[in-house]
Amino acid sequence: MWTGRPRAPFTARMFLLLLHYDDGVHGELDALIPEHYEYVDRHMKAGTFLLTARRDPRVGGVILADGTDRERIEAITAEDPFLRTGGVRYEIIAIEPTRSALAGITV
Known about the structure:
There is one protein chain. The chain is an alpha+beta fold and 107 residues long. It has a single domain, classed as Dimeric alpha+beta barrel (Alpha-Beta Plaits, 2-Layer Sandwich). The protein is built from 2 helices and 4 strands. The chain has helices at 26-45, 70-78; strands spanning 14-21, 49-54, 60-66, 88-95. The chain has a 4-stranded antiparallel β-sheet with strand order 2-3-1-4, covered by helices on one side. Strand 2 and strand 3 form a beta hairpin. It starts with 13 loop residues before the first strand and ends in a 12-residue tail after the last strand.
């Protein structure tokens, strides 16, 4: 049994954003890719989005977001042009990193 330091109360510092695409929405998404990339770039430059990734197979995407305010993250995800298709939804998962090997991310 691990007997290290006691756990502090959970306070999310990051969010894992999972994008889920409905079947048949890919053609609409392709038309919105330039706007979606502008949206992503804006939040990368602001320091909110730390990493983005495509899912394979093409069923959605993944974004690692920095922030302590879930409402702010919800407002940011609501800006995504992909949502206009009606066939994309975000799943927002609050995470509290405990270890990192990524440069610039300390826990």
